[in-house]
Design brief:
The structure is a homodimer. Chain A folds into 2 domains: 44 residues, Arc Repressor Mutant, subunit A (Orthogonal Bundle); 146 residues, Tetracycline Repressor, domain 2, CATH 1.10.357. In chain A, 65% of the residues lie in helices and 0% in strands. The termini of chain A are far apart. At the A-B interface, α7, α8 and α9 of A face α7, α8 and α9 of B. The structure holds a DNA duplex.
DNA sequence: CCATTATGTAAGCGATGCTTACTTTTCAGA
DNA sequence: TCTGAAAAGTAAGCATCGCTTACATAATGG
């Protein structure tokens, strides 16, 4: 191709941005956008690079492969989910455990409903390397532990922990897997309503059980 | 290239199997295997063709694109799941509704636990075109309707229908999404046990609720 | 018996993940 | 302040994928 500019005249930004500055963050942000637009399966390393204004080989300096990129994105998403859940319980730590559980469930479902594609990234563990991310594991286990403590305080049996998670997780997945229309639930708003009603029923079952 | 054999001598099976016979079924079967081996995401049209002993362009005579292939596979998987569930209720149609519900839930979870990757195909609706398959919709709605009737007979409120499905679906997805190890559940056998215990708790909640 | 139609093959396009070789920038130590 | 190694890009290319098009072969029915 024989390219040799006399100085650094001409061209656009000849050298200013050879180094991106913080490509890593930019790639995560771009991928987060891609996930939001077309879902996790549609994410492409090349497209993320394109959006970050960088060549197709550049990302591999920061993420050895696609899975590691997706894992970093999942970490960020988990962080947001964790924050949403914690923010919901924090103001009512003194109230009855079942009320706190309801708040957690609602916040979890709300977040999954508002960010279905991001939720898909954190739950679809075929796309990420969950074990490799200590922060994701930690934040996940914190929610799990909190729910466990509240269920204990509410007098629920041990199996209730898995049951509660399965229930909330099932609702969230039905939403992102698009199963809800089949149940006469079409809008996101309706979805949240239906999920809330189901959640109440479940918690009510736990309460009545004690009586 | 210039290829013109004098007769039809030489070569392996020169003409015998130019036409496969029933490529369609063979491709579905091959894909079912691929799904079982490496999960739905790993399925490749070319590999399915390879296993059917056919060129890479051949599948497109039968399935216009990958999604249609996957949908056909999902149809087959749904058929098997439907059969498993129906076989479980059939012998106990005269027993109490909650017992039948338990049987359905158990059969559903059993099947999902035994065929996690196949279950992934039928539930991951980003991979298939659910709306285009009348048989899949029908069989799915049959299970849904059956559960609905049983819940009504058991005196459960309307929300219980969605709640019950979400619960069972959540357990099944936690299994295939590999969330169970996090809950101290490591083997498939343990998984089934834990899911059964959670299922009982859920149904118990419904029962007690009536009292 | 032969023409039509169904079913395969061969080759190739654009895109992907990832690698390798090279270039440019940054920055720490003399 | 200079310099040389390390960091962070680029460019080109490999193997593979989904899918299309042009062609070859087999099955079929008038």
């Amino acid at each position: 191709m024989a390219r040799r500019p006399a100085r650094k005249t001409a061209k656009k930004k000849p050298s200013r941005t050879y180094h991106h500055g913080n490509l890593r963050e930019a790639l995560i942000e771009a991928t987060l956008q891609l996930v939001q637009e077309d879902g996790p399966e549609a994410v492409t390393v090349r497209e993320a690079a394109r959006r970050a204004g960088v060549s197709s080989g550049a990302p591999f300096r920061h993420f050895p492969n696609r899975t590691v990129l997706m894992t970093a994105v999942a970490e960020e998403a988990t962080h947001r989910l964790h924050a949403a859940v914690m923010a919901a319980v924090e103001p009512i730590v003194d109230r009855p455990p079942l009320m706190q559980l309801r708040a957690i469930g609602t916040a979890y479902l709300q977040w999954a409903s508002d960010n279905p594609t991001h939720f898909a990234v954190v739950s679809n563990r075929g796309l990420i390397d969950y074990e490799s991310s200590s922060s994701m594991k930690r934040e996940n286990e914190e929610i799990q532990a909190l729910m466990g403590r509240l269920l204990d305080a509410a007098g629920a049996p041990a199996e209730a922990k898995l049951a509660a998670r399965a229930f909330v997780y099932g609702l969230a997945r039905m939403r992102i897997d698009n199963h809800l229309p089949q149940w006469g639930v079409d809008s996101p708003a309706e979805a949240l309503g239906a999920m809330g009603a189901a959640l109440d029923l479940f918690l009510e079952g736990l309460i009545k059980r004690r009586a």
